[in-house]
Amino acid sequence: MSRPTIAGVARAAGVSVASVSRVLNGLPATEEMVERVQRAVAELGYVPDARARSLKVGRTFQLTLAVADVGNPVYVTMMRAVEEVVSAAGYRLVVTTTGPDVVDEVALVRGMARGYADGLLISPLRVDEDLVKSIRECEVPVVVAGNVPAKAGVDTVRANSPKGMLLAVDHLVARGRTKIAFLNGPADTVPGAARAKGFADALKAHDLEAVATAEASDFTFAAGRAAAPELLVAEVAVGLDAVICANDLLAVGVMHELAAAGLRVPEDVAVVGMDDSELAEQSFPPLTSVNLGSAERGRRAAELLLARIEDNDRTPRRIVVQPSLSIRKSTP
Amino acid sequence: MSRPTIAGVARAAGVSVASVSRVLNGLPATEEMVERVQRAVAELGYVPDARARSLKVGRTFQLTLAVADVGNPVYVTMMRAVEEVVSAAGYRLVVTTTGPDVVDEVALVRGMARGYADGLLISPLRVDEDLVKSIRECEVPVVVAGNVPAKAGVDTVRANSPKGMLLAVDHLVARGRTKIAFLNGPADTVPGAARAKGFADALKAHDLEAVATAEASDFTFAAGRAAAPELLVAEVAVGLDAVICANDLLAVGVMHELAAAGLRVPEDVAVVGMDDSELAEQSFPPLTSVNLGSAERGRRAAELLLARIEDNDRTPRRIVVQPSLSIRKSTP
DNA sequence: TTGTAAGCGTTATCAA
DNA sequence: TTGATAACGCTTACAA
After folding, report:
1. Does the beta-carbon distance from B283 to A282 stay under 8 Å?
2. Where is the HTH lacI-type domain (chains A, B) (predicted)?
3. What tens-digit pLDDT sequence spans chain B (332 residues)?
């Protein structure tokens, strides 16, 4: 015996399929009709088919969140926030992972035209013409958590990393650290570019020069460790006393290398991360980290997506979330 | 202008919808037919609707992976392994999160009957009659990464935590640590119960008595920190010299509390975690951890799921993956 | 090789 | 209030 359909329920209840559908959707019906249908539904264990339903009504009540790397704790913060908003609105959230390449991101956006979900929330690491084009042409609403040109004509929620960088530098300087190095992720990524510029500006604001900068091949722990030695030469050369990292994973990687080199955090070298993810509290010493508002970005991005699903004609909004600094033990 | 359908393509190409479908699916057609259809497809930017297609063919080519907590790094290991296998087989993987409650897990399994995916991979924290029943009655193939009664009649891939516990205790004893405490997660969970028993048996095998045991309210970092003080009383009382934790997050939580109490890891107290997740390498000191084979479990579970989709009549397999120990710096 | 048409499981329109 | 029926966009017999 195969899965029961609405027709089977109708037959079992001795009513029409239309009536079954009505009862199921809470439309007016007599007491008795409701009763009969519900009994048949329960008896057969009928569950409506979401594909057929969505084919008809044009909605799936699913939303997709695409993240570049499930291993990056910043995404779990964001995911939790998004989940909360969308499930409260009666949508299922499905998460999918794209990897760091823009081509996969484009393929994902294009693929949304297949009707998998009613909306898409992406946070792309790299952005190119193709991606902008695919977003603009996408059949379903897209919201970008990150920075994408205004001509993409899409709602965005982004962080203010320059301001965040300034917070980090202010803090270090206030604690007497001025020989500051910077470990960035790939500079050809959107966050990488923003943070590089932010760092440069923040140092300039304090009339400081970078003691060293390095670029990790990825925003990962392993890449952070691999790139750290480049920074450490500055330690012997000029007495580096602080390093700011483009995210928490990189910062934790650096702290490991610092320890391996016999340097203490924060006594010898202070370390500041960015994202203020769960990892920042879990690391040892707990990591001072720039909170770029990932939870709030997730929440607001989700709200924008829901709003656009309701009304696709609203003019795109570009929200910027302000950063704050979570001071922990990795800085003096 | 709305989204183009196969009928639109057919009209534009001046052929029948059947021919368009055939060309799109690579079925035999003349050179010219292929040419005309492809031109029309490109011109209109046509993308086939996955819902309609799957309604017809009865397959979605999507697989669902449900995890209890996206913040638990053991799931990222598993997710990566699953993703690799299923995408190689031409399926999309979508991840969804259930939370720790069994009712949500049941709702998820029941909901699969709605046709969201061709198969489901779950790793439930808690298992009850309802869940077993829902799995048995599920319309789509289910594979469980974890332990579920054989009567569920489902493929399972589980870890051997007793053996893993023994590995941990063996290691500690070999390094001269015999005053061992245990921090478990909730004992009413499947992994919690297995690890409690494993720990007890492992100690017995060494003629040892537990110096202290505690139960965290969750398998999380915060719960680990909160529960740690219970263990620390044993330190002052009898000179605790090692603690085994039911997962890496708990272990990291304990290490923080140990540090707060002025105890050094591993000199004063050795710590061993379980799962050997990315967090184990990232933590400081790097955590000695029992590798319960999460990557292999993910891989094999995905393979079982694909196999069952091919042939739903095969008899359910119950695979056990053997553990190993990843020795790092948190043990002497 | 190509076209016609029936259906996949729903919902929505229209009469009754 | 209820029932018959036409879509939704696709695939696939079956005919031509």
Report:
1. yes
2. 4-57
3. 578 999 999 999 999 999 999 999 999 999 999 999 999 999 999 999 999 999 999 999 999 999 999 999 999 999 999 999 999 999 999 999 998 999 999 999 999 999 999 999 999 999 999 999 999 999 999 999 999 999 999 999 999 999 999 999 999 999 999 999 999 999 999 999 999 999 999 999 999 999 999 999 999 999 999 999 999 987 777 889 999 999 999 999 999 999 999 999 999 999 999 999 999 999 999 999 999 999 999 999 999 999 999 999 999 999 999 999 999 999 99
Q: What are the tokens at A246?
A: 């483009």
What architecture does CATH give domain A62-159+294-322? Answer: 3-Layer(aba) Sandwich (3.40)
Q: Give chain A's end-to-end CA distance (angstroms, integer).
A: 69
The class (CATH top level) of B161-291 is alpha beta
Is B30 in the A-facing interface, judged by CB distances under 8 Å?
no
Phi and psi at residue B212, to the nearest 5°: -175, 150
Q: What is the CATH number of domain A6-48?
A: 1.10.260.40
The continuous run of DSSP H or E covering B74 comes out as: helix B73-88
B6 touches chain A (CB under 8 A): no
- Please report, for chain B, the start and end positions of each structural domain, with discontinuous segments joined by +: 6-48, 62-159+294-322, 161-291
Among A110, A134, A284, which would you mutate to test the B interface (most chain B Cβ atoms within 10 Å of its Cβ)?
A: A284
Residues 6+ apart with CB under 8 A from B163: B198, B322, B323
Among the partner residues B48, B96, B139, nearest to A3 by beta-carbon distance: B139
